[in-house]
Amino acid sequence: MTVLSSRPAHPGLVSVALEVAGRLANDASDVITATAGRGGHPDPGESPFDWVTDTDRTLERHTRRVLTAEFPSIPVFCEGSDAPGGDAEFRWVVDPVDGTANHTAGIPWCAYSLALVDRWGPVVGVVADPYRAQIYAAARNRGMRANGTPVRLTERQGDPLVVCTEMTRTGPWPGMGQFISTAATAGTGVRVLGSKCLAVAQVALGHASAAVLHGYREWDVAGAVSLAAESGAVVLDRHGEDTHLPLDGLLVAAPGAAETVLGWWQSALQADS
C-alpha cells in the first residue's frame, strides 16, 4: 500500500479554481445554516435514503452559474445528473448538500462538496462544514487547509479508535454487520453519521482513523478525497490498490490504520459472499 500520488496541474488554473471554489463554499455554508430543518421530500428515484430540498436546487443553480461563467470550457456535474464522462480534460463535480436527510431534519451534520477533477483524480477539492464554521480546501501537491490552517497527518501506529462508514443507496452494504462486530471486538467504534463527504473529511482532519464506503457517487467523495490525499491519508479500493478516485469501494485511512481496517473490510466481504 502506498500513499496517493498525482500528476501536476497548471498552477494558474489551480489558483483560480481554489479561489472560486472557496467563494462558493462560503456561500453554501450560509445557505445551509439558514435553511436547516425546513423539510424536504424523498427523491422518487431508486433509494429511500435520498432527499431533495429547495436548498439543493438553489445551491446547484448558483454553483452552475458561477462555474459556467468562470470556466466556460469545463463541464459541471451535480448530484442527480448523468455520471461524469466524455472527453473533457477537466470536470467539476458538486454535491450541494451531502447529508440532505440530516439537513432536512435539522441535524447539524451535512456538507457542501465541490471538486475539480481530471483523468488522474481530484485537482482541487473544497468542502464546507457549515455547523462547525469550517471551510476545508486542498489542491494537488499544495496540501490541505482548514480555515487557512495547514493540516497534515502524522504516521499512526496501533489499532484505530474510530472508523466511519455509511449506508449504500439501498441500505447496509454486504458484510457491514460483520465489519462493525469485528471492529467492536478490537475496541474500535464504527460511526454511521449520514454524510459520505464528512466521513472522509474526518480522516483528513485526524478525527477518525479510517472511512469505509462501499457505495457512493463521484460527487459524494471527490472533494473530501482531495482533502484526504493532501493531508497524507492512504486512499485505497477494496482490493488494497491505491487509486485517485476508486470505483470499486473506497477506504481512506491514516497510514498506521490502513492495513488493519482493510483487513476487516475484506474479511467482512468474504464472509458475506
Strand tally is 14
CATH H-level homologous superfamily name of the largest domain? Fructose-1,6-Bisphosphatase, subunit A, domain 1
Q: Give the low-pLDDT segments.
A: 1-5, 46-51
Strand content: 15-25%
SS class? alpha+beta
Order of helices and strands: HEEHEEHEEEEEEHEHEHEEH
Oligomer: single chain
CATH topology category name of the largest domain: Fructose-1,6-Bisphosphatase, Chain A, domain 1
Give the N-to-C terminal Cα separation. Answer: 24 Å
Q: Count the domains.
A: 2
- The average pLDDT value, as a whole number, equals 89
CATH class of the largest domain: Alpha Beta
Could you give the order of strands across the largest sheet? 3-4-5-6-7-8-9
The number of helical runs is 7
> Percentage of helical residues?
25-40%
GO molecular function: inositol monophosphate 1-phosphatase activity; metal ion binding
Organism: Lentzea fradiae
Keywords: Magnesium, Metal-binding
Cofactor: Mg(2+)
Task: Describe the overall structure.
The protein has 7 helices and 14 strands. The chain is α+β, with helices and mostly antiparallel strands and 273 residues long. The chain has 2 domains: 11-151, Fructose-1,6-Bisphosphatase, Chain A, domain 1 (2-Layer Sandwich), CATH 3.30.540; 162-272, 3-Layer(aba) Sandwich (D-Maltodextrin-Binding Protein, domain 2), CATH 3.40.190. Mean pLDDT is 89; it is low at 1-5 and 46-51.
What are the key terms here?
273 residues; Fructose-1,6-Bisphosphatase, Chain A, domain 1; 7-stranded mixed β-sheet; globular; disordered N terminus
